[in-house]
Specification:
Number of helices: 6
Radius of gyration: 18 Å
Shape: globular
Helix content: 40-55%
Number of strands: 5
Strand content: 15-25%
Structural class: alpha+beta
Length: about 200
């Protein structure tokens, strides 16, 4: 892996792992987003609005995902998915956030739905979006490598070992920097993380 120049601008503003379904609390009909994990990479992201910022992004991603799901359902009814060979097991999208109270500068948001989870990268305006989308997919593959095939079906797999997820993020998105990683790099990083955790248990 190439040495990272930490003086360069961070491309990734934040990462979210959240539930594609809303949760309703007892006695309250209001829909609530369920966030499994969250990390912001600068001072603004970690200010007093951090929680509100994460919820606002997760809510917008949920809206985008819901629209995408409806459109996919209509295509499926027409038999277009079968004709094209596409599947509805994984969806993805991208949208732009304007600057405002929660963000001092515009942001690009990339999301991917897999199984029962949504993975989201909040990127700076100047970020390479194609690279970010590619690395988000690899990050999801790394999570599966680390936590198992069921890791995106329930938050319990992450909640039982949250420190491992953040250690994985530190290796793959160090200080919010995008890297040109391959599947081989991902397997190496996961293997090294496993060795590091095993060493720490001794």
């Amino acid at each position: 892996r190439k040495e990272i120049d930490y003086k360069t601008t961070m491309a990734v503003y934040g990462f979210l792992l959240h539930d594609p379904k809303f949760s309703k609390s007892r006695g309250n009909s209001e829909d609530k987003v369920v966030i499994w994990a969250c990390r912001f990479y600068n001072a603004e992201g970690n200010d007093k609005y951090s929680c509100a910022r994460a919820k606002a992004v997760a809510m917008r991603v949920h809206q985008e995902y819901s629209v995408s799901k409806c459109e996919l359902h209509l295509e499926d009814k027409k038999g277009l998915l079968k004709q094209s060979g596409a599947t509805s097991s994984e969806e993805q999208g991208i949208f732009r956030l304007k600057k405002g109270k929660l963000f001092s500068k515009p942001k690009s948001v990339i999301w991917i739905q897999k199984s029962e989870a949504l993975c989201t990268l909040i990127c700076e305006e100047e970020a390479n979006i194609l690279l970010a989308a590619s690395q988000l997919k690899l990050l999801m593959n790394a999570i599966i490598e680390q936590f198992g095939a069921e890791s995106f079906r329930s938050a319990k797999w992450i909640n039982q070992r949250p420190e491992e997820l953040y250690m994985l993020l530190d290796r793959l998105l160090p200080c919010g920097h995008l890297q040109f990683l391959t599947e081989t790099d991902i397997k190496k990083e996961v293997s090294e993380l496993a060795a590091s955790l095993q060493k720490g248990m001794k």
